[in-house]
Amino acid sequence: MVSLKTHVRRISFGVAALLIGFLAAGCDLASSDPAAEKVTPDQVSEFTATHKVEFIALSAQWCHVCKKVPAVLEEIQPSYPKVQFLDLDIDSDRRGQKLAIDHNASSLPTMLLLIDGELAGTQDGLYPNDHIKRFIHKSIAKKIAHPAE
Q1: What confidence score (pLDDT) does residue 1 get?
Q2: What is the CA radius of gyration of the chain?
Q3: Distance CA 36, CA 16 (A)
Q4: Shortest CA distance to 80 belongs to which of 112, 51, 50, 45?
Q5: pLDDT digits (tens, 9 = 90+) for 59-72
Q6: What was the pLDDT predicted at 32?
Q7: Where are the alpha helices (DSSP H) in the chain?
Q8: Are residues 6 and 112 in contact, defined by beta-carbon separation less than 8 angstroms?
Q9: Are the CB atoms for 87 and 73 separated by under 8 Å?
Q10: Mean pLDDT value across residues 87-106
Q11: Which of 50, 56, 67, 147 is 20 to 30 Å from the Cα of 117, by its Cα?
Q12: CA atoms 14, 17, 23, 24: torsion sign
């Protein structure tokens, strides 16, 4: 039998890990690219109309957090009508397995943004919708600001 003290300790570690994840994600967003910051939402819309952009969530049925991914993608999709949103199970989908291996997905869910088949950004974990939208915008904006990279 697990004691109450053990449960509290587990919850504390979980909350600490979650906070570290948010802080790390925030630090990534804070280290911005001045050229990419000037890219407008209209420019992102124009770009997505002329390029193949895929937002891929790598997940698994056994992953509890991953079960929330379809609902999150459904909420975000209207903001990016030209972006293809996919939720790929790494255990049953060959493309999901290959992407997880190729991009060293070390946790689930892992979000990938591919532009014309090339990786433009990755994000580990599931974050609030606004954070995911900033991730998509920032990744596309970098590609617009630095097309040769």
Answers
A1: 54
A2: 17
A3: 32
A4: 45
A5: 999 999 999 999 99
A6: 67
A7: 4-30, 34-37, 41-50, 69-76, 94-102, 129-145
A8: no
A9: yes
A10: 93
A11: 67
A12: negative
Give the pair of three-digit tokens for residue 83: 């972006």
Question: DSSP secondary-structure letter at 81?
Answer: T
Look up residue 53 and give its amino acid.
Answer: V
Q: Model-level pTM?
A: 0.75
Sheet of strand 84-89: strand arrangement? 84-89, 53-59, 110-115, 118-124
| Exposed / middle / buried, residue 128 (Cβ in 10 Å: 0-12, 13-18, 19+) | exposed
Provide CB contacts within 8 A for 53, sequence distance 6+.
47, 80, 82, 83, 84, 113, 114, 115, 140
**What is the structure's pLDDT at 146?**
87
Cβ-contact 60, 66 below 8 angstroms: yes
First to last CA, the chain: 55
